[in-house]
Amino acid sequence: MEIPYIVTPRKDTGLFNSKIAIWLFLASEVMLFGGFFSAYIFLRLGADFPWPERTLPVLPGLINTFVLIASSVTVVFAWASLKMRQWGKFQIYMLITVVCSFIFMGLKGIEYYVKFHHQALRTMDWAVVEGHLGNVVKEGVHVDHEHGPKDEDLALDHNGKKIEENVINYETTQITFNTLRYERPWVEEMIAHAAEEKATIELAARLELQTERGKPVVFEKGTKLDLKLLDEIKKAHLAGHRNNQALRTDSLRESWREVHKANPGKRDSDLAGLAKVDDAAIAKDLMPEQPSVAFEVKPAVVFRFAPRDIQEANGTLRDGTALAGKLLESPMGFHFVDAIDFRHLAMKVTERVGHHDEAAIEKAIEESWLLKENHELAEIWEKQQKALAKLEEFLASKGKEPTEKDKYRINWQEMAFYADPKSSVESYDPSKTYAMPRVDENPKEKFFGPDYHERLFPHLEVPRNQVQFASKFAPAWNTYYAIYFTMTGLHGLHVIGGAIVLAYYLFFGKKMYLSNPEWLANRVEVGGLFWHFVDLVWIFLFPILYLM
């Protein structure tokens, strides 16, 4: 049976089947993205933190906008070429469309890469620091802060990866593993690190377990830690647990039978608490269980953990492993600080005072840990205040005033200007720029952010007790980035899906073209409609995320 209206349109609607289907699909897509855009507006209006403004690189976003617009044009040309039976032109235009999708996703990948390698930190007094973390260096190595450590001076984990200066250092004398939940990579890391420090991790006490009833398995005190040992202990623990649970279940079941026999006609709810496990009767058949197992570390070794993996108060890891020993100082080390932001602090002061009090905000900023304990940042802030005074005077002559961003935030271009001893705030003329003094960006910096080899930025160590929250510029940092990654990620999936379909028509559509060129033209038209929708969504995303 032949399905009608695959190629020829219906007379009443003028549409063929797939065109009706794509319009229905696009209607659902409009509702999906419409919901996202509406949610974005409400979340931005009701945000309880300073909403990031113009924090994304505009140039790659602008290029991507023109790339998608160009691809929408070429996909129409490809469809028109098929209608005119010009296969060669179709291939050229469709290839351009697919290449444009690769360019779009390439620029988006660069943007994501930069975000996932940029660190943000909120201090206990609500000041925000942005920049790049340094890497942990080997003990005894002197670091040239201007040029940074050399690769051969860096400490590496057991996988050969660099360790960022955002770790919790715990001097450990004993490790107690949860028998069921130990994280295998962490165990391997501990074993490797202990070997590097010429230390041993040994079983703290002799264990007598059973894998089957009556078949003992002995683990001697002093046995060195390895994954095979933990797996064997886990196997014996599970065997004992299964055996003991079965015995308790059978004993409880027998107790219920006796209770029902002694109390005929009564409901289970009336007999609650009467049935009990006969511990004495099953004691001889019980097998030992070992829910946790302790190992001694000789001599004590300093292990490093990511802050998200350990509870600093009690030395417990996320997998239930407990460390005994001493928590050492574990500051976060910024090799480059490229921005500081006091807008959140100002918001908190305003909430506390009950109204906007400039004097109270200035005092809170001056007494903040960032400026009070860091001479270099305090000098940079003083320079910024001198430039701000000039900007305020100029804007006042025009009946305007600086924005919150001008007053309470130093961006990387401004930070580089103030940190460079060759730059002079006295020569700053706000009438020429209508903005705070800043260095000029080169083309590379418009895509990847500041060039840390060419620019001067301050260094900073933040004690762990001053860290309220820290994250890369990822969804965890704030609501804005959560929305940004959700919406642009979903849009990117649409780009990839659409590009795959169009590439299929390009590379595998010749057979369909030779059998029925109108059929392929219809398919390309449907794919083009989806591609236009993808372009339209980006045209909305670009201004609200990049320009506002």
UniProtKB/TrEMBL annotation:
<dbReference type="InterPro" id="IPR035973">
    <property type="entry name" value="Cyt_c_oxidase_su3-like_sf"/>
</dbReference>
<dbReference type="Pfam" id="PF00510">
    <property type="entry name" value="COX3"/>
</dbReference>
<dbReference type="InterPro" id="IPR013833">
    <property type="entry name" value="Cyt_c_oxidase_su3_a-hlx"/>
</dbReference>
<feature type="transmembrane region" description="Helical">
    <location>
        <begin position="528"/>
        <end position="547"/>
    </location>
</feature>
<feature type="transmembrane region" description="Helical">
    <location>
        <begin position="55"/>
        <end position="80"/>
    </location>
</feature>
<keyword id="KW-1133">Transmembrane helix</keyword>
<keyword id="KW-0812">Transmembrane</keyword>
<dbReference type="InterPro" id="IPR000298">
    <property type="entry name" value="Cyt_c_oxidase-like_su3"/>
</dbReference>
<dbReference type="InterPro" id="IPR024791">
    <property type="entry name" value="Cyt_c/ubiquinol_Oxase_su3"/>
</dbReference>
<protein>
    <submittedName>
        <fullName>Cytochrome c oxidase subunit 3</fullName>
    </submittedName>
</protein>
<keyword id="KW-0472">Membrane</keyword>
<feature type="domain" description="Heme-copper oxidase subunit III family profile">
    <location>
        <begin position="1"/>
        <end position="548"/>
    </location>
</feature>
<feature type="transmembrane region" description="Helical">
    <location>
        <begin position="92"/>
        <end position="114"/>
    </location>
</feature>
<feature type="transmembrane region" description="Helical">
    <location>
        <begin position="481"/>
        <end position="508"/>
    </location>
</feature>
<feature type="transmembrane region" description="Helical">
    <location>
        <begin position="20"/>
        <end position="43"/>
    </location>
</feature>
<comment type="similarity">
    <text>Belongs to the cytochrome c oxidase subunit 3 family.</text>
</comment>
